[in-house]
Amino acid sequence: MILRRLADAIREQNWFTVILEVLIVVVGIFIGLQVNDWNERRKDREDEREFVARLHDDILLAQAMASRVREKRLGLIAHLATAADVLFERTGRNSLTEDECFAIGHSRFFNIVISKLPSLTELLSAGRLGIVQDSELRLAIIELQQRIEAFNEFIPLLTSVRADLPNEYPDLIRSSIYLDDELNEFEQHYECDLEGMRASSAFQSAISLNIDAFDAYLRDGLVPWGEQFDKVHRLLDQRLGIDPAIEQGQ
């Protein structure tokens, strides 16, 4: 109808009507675009709220699955350092503590549950990370994803170069397993022959390699991944108005 009136007005050279009809069309298109844009922004805000809530739940689950092993790995390096001092006779001690012996035996383990975050994977696959308005949170999420990918690639590399000391040197470090009644799970126990370790240059080279690899595992993998995880968790709590103290007490 509008196009017919416009054509008639042009034939009749009724320029006022031509201009009026063109304005009606332009204004109609403009209003339609504005309404469509408003609807898209409203949908983005709804999707953002849903994504932030889902990501928070995913973060809580991932942290629950990894937190205990994460703390054990972080606590191991101090005992490895003192064990190395004893082994290489940099102290006056001629015996290893149970924790130091355990650290030597456990220096072969780099595994930890690095859970995927389904909500983040879904959003990245759809190319819609831009719906997150908070730039700090958005950048933190991107860095977390990068940390997860890098850590997953880093662990197999370290595992391929470390020495399995209890299996390679069974006379120097003996491994056994027992049921921990408090944790209701099996734990490993190690017995170390410090004198034999000091007499074996091959063992000393192997433990040196393990300690270096474990230090890299913490410094370049576990620590930055864990810190970024905690940062995203903190920013999500702020975005959702959650008190961390209350959340931890739940």
Write structural notes for this entry.
The chain has 250 residues and is mainly alpha-helical. Helices cover 73% and strands 6% of the residues. The chain has one domain (47-249). It has helices at 2-11, 15-87, 98-106, 118-125, 135-161, 165-168, 194-199, 201-240, 244-249; strands at residues 173-180, 185-192. The protein has a two-stranded antiparallel ribbon with strand order 1-2. Strand 1 (173-180) and strand 2 (185-192) form a beta hairpin. Helix 2 runs antiparallel to helix 8. The radius of gyration is 31 Å and the shape is elongated. It starts with a helix and ends with a helix.
Short description:
The chain is mainly alpha-helical and 250 residues long.
